[in-house]
């Protein structure tokens, strides 16, 4: 594996999840596979889980890990070809990424969508530039369009729920939730992409619910059933995946009638304990961080329904799975 940008970079979902569960059961079983190898983590945006779980995963495999926050801890990077760099950018990505390639065997990159120019976001310029100029295998730590490590961790968590609750074909519902800011579509895009693959390969049932106007790009929602009535969508759910996102069209917009501070919280689309009564004792997932009592109510997050900490813990084994696969191939 030379890149991990999306679900398209894995060949078999079942065996990838099984590999992650084996690593979770025996995290140090391959603690020399990364000896004398270095993972570099380049962050253009903040992180708690991705940064620390990646460092822990590298450590579990015997790898060294270098972390840098681009722009604040390093020089401000230029990406434009032919740029005359006489203003605020100091280092071109051509040199910056090439230097990282000298120090690191595998590089992880986080770069969020700007949400102002859809074409520019869809180019994934940062991810592709680091790949091109470093010459190293690249792992997306969340890009403009996707968050594949999070989605793999979500799949691991759903499999654990499925086994524990003895559910053969779980019903998974991705629900939009309110938020005061316009957020990228990367997490729901990616989750939908991985769930659509789970429908095909694992037989899951997958539904998306959101207010009209928050349709994801068809590239990601694919053949998923979209139900605009959240109450109807949540009926008989086994797993509820909660996430806010901004509109795809008009790109990056938020609809004030559904979002704080224009509405009182908990709001119509907030996940509350009441809403779980119509489910099959559903587990509630969120990639974190979450806005309490805006996206999800305290009475859910502080209840046994919430599976968000287990989900965050699984980020280690998602990363360990990807790193193991890359190291085995090198
Ligand atoms: N879930 C997630 O990616 O968290 P961080 O933004 O803290 O890395």
Note the run of SSEs as H and E. Answer: EHEHEEEHEHHEHEHEHEHEEHH
* Hetero groups: phosphoric acid mono(formamide)ester
Tell me the CATH topology of the largest domain.
Answer: Rossmann fold
How big a fraction of the residues is strand? 5-15%
- Rg over CA atoms, rounded to whole Å, is 20 Å
| CATH homologous superfamily descriptor of the largest domain | Aspartate/ornithine carbamoyltransferase
Number of strands: 12
Average pLDDT number: 97
Helical segment count: 11
Assigned CATH architecture of the largest domain: 3-Layer(aba) Sandwich
- Major sheet description: 5 strands, parallel
What is the subunit organization of this protein?
single chain
| CATH class category name of the largest domain | Alpha Beta
The percentage helix is: 25-40%
Strand order of the largest sheet: 1-7-6-2-3
| Overall 3D form | globular
How would you portray this structure in words?
The protein has 330 residues and is an alpha/beta fold. It folds into two domains: 3-146 and 315-329, 3-Layer(aba) Sandwich (Rossmann fold); 150-311, Aspartate/ornithine carbamoyltransferase (Rossmann fold). The protein is built from eleven helices and twelve strands. α1 crosses α6, α3 (93-103) packs across α5 and α6 (148-164) crosses α7. The protein starts with a strand and ends with a helix. The structure holds phosphoric acid mono(formamide)ester. The site of phosphoric acid mono(formamide)ester (CP) has 8 residues, from α2.
